[in-house]
Amino acid sequence: MDDDKPLVPSPTPPSPDSGAAWLNHLANLWNTTQSGLHRLLPLDKLAQGLVRGFTVNEDQIAEILAQVRAELPTTEIILIGKPQAGKSSIIRGLTGVSAAIVGQGFRPHTQNIQRYAYPSPDLPLFLFTDTVGLGEANHTTEALLADLEATLQTGGEPARVLVLTLKITDFATDSLHYILSTLRQKYPQIPCLLAVTCLHEVYPSRATEHPAYPPDFPEVQRAWTAIQSSFAPLWDQAVLLDFTLEEDGYEPTFYGLAALRETLASLLPEAEARTIHHLLDGETGKRLGSVYRDVARRYILTFALMAGTLAAIPLPFATMPVLTALQVSLVGLLGQLYGQVLSPSQAGGVVSAIAGGFLAQAVGRELIKFVPGFGTAIAASWAMAYTWSLGEGACVYFGDLMGGKKPDPQKIQNVMKEAFQTAQERFRDPQSKS
User: Fold this and answer.
1) Residue 224 C-beta-side C-alpha neighbours within 13 Å
2) Is the Cα torsion angle 87, 91, 93, 96 positive or negative in sign?
């Protein structure tokens, strides 16, 4: 007689007349099954082994990055302006990155300067240099000017452009005028763009939306003419902008964005202008993304096969907790691959965020196990396809974060649906085709 305990004991079920006893019986069966499956599938150790076996080739990444850097030179946009003058909004408009991600991406450079590399510090196609605290008591104009001059004196500089951001209602501009005139005198080769922002603040009271661009309201034109005259001849090009938030109610949100791109392109050398004009057409991201995706799919395939094996156990709902843990582990590993360190609860949150309408299908997958034989095969096929699609969706999610973009839930859902259909064909049990 074999002394080993079976994975799932099969005690004699209680009498059907005893409802409470049946509930206790099912609860004990669930707990015993879950415990046994965890013993057979030590997820933590398994995950550690997979991390050691599947890693991105750092040399390959470095080679791609070096080649891309050579082909796409960095453009530095130096933003000079007071707080709330629209500097971060300009970054959002040019890159498409959310306000939260822009805020998190800034890193201190000096006491008075912060920098934001887009899409990443390893591949800075754009380097936004932002002056902070201008006009505040603990940030003197002289100290800010000294930091800017030190930044501009560094060797091997990229193509640069000064962008002076000024609210259309702000005429207290002595400090800005002093900084800009000093820099233009010392660095006349660096062009300057005058960006006048927050136009809606001088719209007539009857105006509830933006007019056709450029705005022809007399209130805007008077202020615009006065500001241009005040800073002449320190600027090379000038542009009117009104970049607002969605809740402000103005459409388009980035009013004047096309003019900003065209004007910036006219101030830069050809290579940098082409980068601005085609603003991150996606080719670089595709090349890097393909490397990460190839490695990620090795993770995903392994976990999909394990999910199918678990789902083949003909006990409805008994394997769901372990399958969920397996899929959370997969998302955690993919996050680590893309440079995102997640706790199990955070990985579970990502699963919930991107899985969407698949939850109801998961319940249906378990119910179909009540159909002997055929139901189990269908459940296993579904579990493999779902795990595969979840992994593909997670790659899109983490890839967007790596590129400094806000993940698009609709895009992720579309990727998952397509991946699920493809995986169903790939993993379908031969018997189910008959």
Assistant:
1) 22
2) negative
